[in-house]
Amino acid sequence: MPETIPKGLTRLAFGGDYNPEQWPESVWHEDVRLMREAGVTMVSVGIFSWALLEPSPGEYAFGWLDRLLDLLHAHGIRADLGTPTVAPPAWFYRAQPEALPVAADGTRYEFGSRGAICHSNADYREAAAAITTRLATRYADHPALAMWHVHNEYGVPVSACYCESCAAHFRRWLRATYETVDAVNEAWGTAFWGQRYADFNQINPPRVTPTVGNPAQALDYKRFADATLRENFVAERDILHRLSPGVPVTTNFMTALSQCDSIDYWAWGSEVDLVTNDHYLITDGRRTHVNLAMAADLTRSVAGGAPWLLLEHSTSGINWQPRNPAKAPGQMARNSLAHVARGSEGALFFQWRQSRRGAEKFHSAMLPHGGTDTRVWREVVELGASVDSLSEIRGTRTVADAAVLWDWQSWWAQNLQWRPSEDHDARERADAFYEALYDRHLTVDFAHPEADLSAYPLVVVPALYLMTQAAGRNLTEYVENGGTLVVSYFSGIVDEHDAVHDGAYPGPLRDVLGLTVEEFSPLLPGDRVRIAGPEGSELTGDVWTEFVVPRGADTVWTFADGLAAGRPAITRHRLGEGSAWYVATRLASDGLDAVLGWAADDARIAPRAELPRDVEAVRRTGESGTYLFVINHTSSDAKVPLEAHGTELLTGDRAAGRLAVPAGAVRVVRLDG
Ligand code: GAL
User: Fold this and answer.
1) How does pLDDT run across 275-302, given as a tens digit for each residue?
2) Mind telling me which Gene3D superfamilies this protein's record contains (predicted)?
3) Are residue 233 and residue 129 in the same domain, yes or no?
């Protein structure tokens, strides 16, 4: 079989974070024996090992890592080797206390956890480059080396630092971005509240202010903090590329986690050699498999549609939510294979052996505290065999039916203070529209607002508060050329500096939607409005209403009560070859489904009525063939019609007609032809 990235892997990746430094070396031999039993092909090592690799400044202790990599290699296990720069040692902070980051309120974080880093700090950057250089020099040619894993999850736990060196760095960034201080004044609208700056040196990070600070300054600080993290990543990556050519470099993303809202992954996707992602089930009462599918789709989209790799998820419960349920029997395999269906080239976990000490001892692992006589271990071994049987899918790409527009910068801007309603949440709308598309069994790509959309019959814009004129033109052309667009309220309101677009709302979307919005009128908690539509249909909205004036669009549903009574609630504008829908209130799932039903008809997307709710069907296709993944998240057996005969890869059975997928099971059919 040909190799793909990670280097030297001829199967899908299966394994996890391996932190053997927590155990005596005698345990390592048991580890590799059990890894083989479980079908582990790759582990991530050394991510937090700086203090062990460099116990005091300039004194290195690589012996243990040499022995570990040799041992892995001897057992045919590939290594994803970390640069440990997310966890500088205690001695480093004693010498460089200013490398500890500072919060917006001036609190300096302490050593004693992880990720306490000011990424503008020159001493930190120098030390990170030094340890990365040492590792790259020593291990570039190690036969176990499959990939470099830089740092860990940039953006958490500290997304931005507000110290003096960041202030200086921010001023440099502003100079490079705007050239003159007047351009900053203009972009930030500093004429308001007398915030005008006469010189770059007068500008600080947006620290704590008596009342709301300048929103454009806050938005630029997000961009600056993101760019600063990327500078650090790129610096390490370039060292690794130079000293370890041919070995791919990654850093693990967290594309869909609300907790990680500080990284513009559109900008990061092209900086890594392989997009990798971490995903954990958020148990907040919503359907976790839908959030998982969204995370996987978003990650694939950040990778430009190319295969990516799930670098961390959990075998069972995690330990950092208020309540952390175990996974139900079979759920781990469904989770892993759902990521694979949506483009991951394998499935890895945090972590291999469950820790006995430290902050994460109650986090599940592949090898639990209870050892091998446990349900989790048996399921891990079974999953290892399943993943192995899917190796031929490597390099194939997931096929999408529709696109959802997403932009981290718009999300940042939307989340700034003093908006029409704090109940409107851009991420909530993205989740809700995604879920409605999922329930129509449509596979979704996410797209940047300025990306080429011509491949998609249907494009959904859940809430894109910040939108450039270029994005507006992009959507107008998309519809004129035959596309179907669905746009939710409070989209297209401000430009990249959080300045309201000239003229009526929604600036760059007025033409494509054929309407203007005169005023927003958000609802109070608990208030709902009825909206009346075709053939006596009625829906309800909450959180938001507004006063829409059609200017070419047809009104399809009308507000029946509330301040907006009698005005349009849902409109359709036929433009060129396509149509553009607008939704002026927050719809629940039935309302979203109704609108998406109409839009799907406009887009000529046939309903997938034969698939039961919560039975997922996703395709990967490529040179080796077309593969249909069917994932049954329900407690009933399902039968899914196949459009062609094929071979089911997990069981080896021939499949034709209707494919039986037992309750909770996964089936993967290579379709003939
Ligand atoms: C990830 C992190 C891992 C581990 C895991 C626990 O965010 O990268 O090191 O902490 O969470 O869920």
Assistant:
1) 999 999 999 999 999 999 999 999 999 9
2) 3.40.50.880, Glycosidases, Golgi alpha-mannosidase II
3) yes
